[in-house]
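Record type: monomer structure entry
Structure origin: computed from sequence
Chain ID: A
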Amino acid sequence: MGNLGAGEILVILMLGLLVLGPVRLAVVARHVGSMVRDVRRVAEGFQEEIRDLVEDPSIEALARERGRHLTVPDGAAPDRPTEQDGA
């Protein structure tokens, strides 16, 4: 559960029990649990989409082709920026 320890979770549950009562605390906990599940599903979907895009062969070929145009030939030093006078 992230960076929450057992003691911190216990304090949160005790505060929830005092503020909401036992019945409402159970309802709220169920609702929060379903929201967390939904958020995780959406995040996993995004990760899967990104993974599919990165592993797409046509995109890999395009990246390799573009990369060839951006690389400096062996033995050649790239131009270094010069400082402007008075800057």
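Annotation 1: The two ends are 51 Å apart (CA to CA).
Annotation 2: The chain has a mean pLDDT of 80.
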